[in-house]
Design goal:
Two copies of one chain form a homodimer. Chain A is an alpha/beta fold and 306 residues long. Chain A has two domains: 1-116 and 266-306, 3-Layer(aba) Sandwich (Isopropylmalate Dehydrogenase); 117-255, Isopropylmalate Dehydrogenase, CATH 3.40.718.10. Chain A has ten helices and ten strands. In chain A, α4 (77-86) runs parallel beside α5 (99-110). Chain A is globular. Chain A starts with 8 loop residues before the first helix and ends with a helix. The A-B interface holds A 128, 139, 142-143, 174, 176, 183-185, 187, 207-212, 221-225, 227-236, 238-239, 242-243, 245, 248, 250-251 and B 128, 139, 142-143, 174, 176, 183-185, 187, 207-212, 221-225, 227-236, 238-239, 242-243, 245, 248, 250-251.
């Protein structure tokens, strides 16, 4: 409850939206400072039977060093959340707090699925035709080896299938040309691995101009390029706002605040990391995503593929 | 005259636009098949005294292998153009033809400026405030060393100053975070070089979301990332067309067909490579850019900095 620029207000409002909109039976553990959270839960009429308040005295700030903060603030909402997740008291953990602390906590408490070199984070790309593309890695791995990109392809494919409900997702390699043999050393070495990977439906190279088109479902790239693209895509919404087009049906889909968070792909339990600027809708979406990941046994499906 | 999807028509129309709009005294050498070009020159009333028709029997197609084509088609308009440029008969060479052949021709005929590891190509980024940013490399060097990025910074800075008329251009490093020490291995190793480079006004790291903002003038990155960004930026215009916003003042600036071509930076004479889809306006702009590069002694200024 303590993560995000508008914590805990937006988290509580998001919880209200979630509880109003679904018939699901999930119990939501609200981890945070009871004196700050409890009055808001009452103010927004959150039914007591649907939630469980878990007091956490400490809060990890945005500018704290992740490893140091997690070590020193064991009573922080992030530390307690990971403890509850690792001991099986909760099935998924969501936070819009310190991203570094969320990642470090994930790696050290929840563990990477055996066989996976490095976990990854992905982003949604709004396609012009109304569909949705998935791009990964978007920042967890600035330098990548071909074998990692090959694994991201499987992780992205599983996510597209199980969470985005895309049948037989087309996986593409981000590149500077369509033909095999194009690209930097990484792309050139990754192409043959993807081509021979029987766990995915490889659809070849894809260029920057194709991100908004419907000739792919999943794109893999290194986390440096992916992060630049993610932030550039976010700025498309900034352009829309500047041109007073934020209500345009398509541009509105670049408003990433609405999407909620990104799951850490390749770890043994669902962890979802939200934007600092997460609003109520983002929190609602993150809870729904967590529910979907649990219901589809997503993490177990990953284990079965590595 | 034979390069571009609509050759030689758009080239002739562009020439007409140029001759109508400027008081410059440039003589434009029109290199191409006389039987195809001459009737168009007459049809569009191109004054004979402002041009010089140079017959070239052969044409290098878009899908020909650059090195092979240049070797075998010595009577092609591209081969003849490079010959005229290298022998000093013309001062700049422009073509919207086979990009590979243009690059190979540049490297082997015109030569790289001594001290420069690799030339580069740049693109214009339209900023929200009406200003213009410069991004390089956008595809000539898929894999880069820190020393190359450091040289691109100088090339971009000189271009911004002499051609875009930006005083003391702020040069930034494309990265995944603002703080020093962020990024992939390349960015981490490039930062200290840029910081110590006295030929540029280094303004630190910059992220994908800042491309449309006014906190930089020149951005350097490897040619893989730059090419992906260039093509993604081009697709912003595709979005505008799909949303029927192509006449919006800002989105219109992403219509890269209008810009003309990209100069090859770091070579000893002006070479400008156009898009295959170049229209008349693009050809006009390319001629004006060539004029500006000649008038400002741009290539000599590069020589003085390396």
């Amino acid at each position: 409850m303590m993560g995000g620029d508008f914590a805990p207000l937006e988290a509580v409002k998001g919880l209200q939206l979630y509880l109003e909109s679904v018939s699901g039976t999930a119990t939501v553990f609200c981890i945070g400072r009871e004196t700050e959270v409890q009055p808001l839960l009452q103010q927004f009429n959150i039914p007591q039977e649907r939630i469980k308040m878990v007091h956490a005295e400490e809060v990890i700030g945005y500018h704290e060093h992740p490893t140091k903060a997690l070590k020193e603030k064991q009573q922080s909402s992030i530390s307690i959340g990971f403890h509850l997740l690792s001991t099986g008291k909760i099935d998924a953990f969501i936070s819009a707090g310190n991203t570094g602390a969320m990642l470090v906590g994930t790696m050290f408490t929840i563990k990477v699925v055996e066989g996976i070199l490095r976990p990854s984070i992905a982003t949604i790309i709004p396609k012009l035709n109304g569909g949705t593309g998935l791009l990964l890695d978007v920042g967890l791995n600035a330098d990548c080896k071909p074998e990692q990109l090959n694994q991201f392809a499987v992780l992205g494919s599983l996510y597209a299938k199980n969470i985005l409900n895309i049948e037989n997702p087309r996986v593409c390699l981000l590149n500077v040309g369509e033909e095999e043999g194009k690209g930097n050393i990484l792309a050139q070495a990754t192409y043959p691995l993807l081509k021979e990977n029987t766990h995915i439906n490889f659809a070849g190279n894809i260029e920057g101009r194709d991100l908004i088109k419907d000739n792919y479902d999943v794109i893999v790239c290194d986390g440096f390029t992916g992060n630049v693209i993610l932030k550039l895509a976010e700025s498309i919404y900034d352009i829309a706002v500047a041109r007073e087009l934020q209500n345009d049906k398509y541009f509105h889909r670049f408003h990433y605040e609405n999407y909620g968070g990104t799951p850490v792909l390749g770890v043994s339990k669902p962890v979802i990391i939200g934007h600092g600027i997460s609003n109520d809708k983002a929190f609602k979406n993150m809870i729904e995503l967590a529910e979907k990941m649990i219901a589809s046994n997503f993490c177990d499906k990953i284990k079965g593929n590595f």
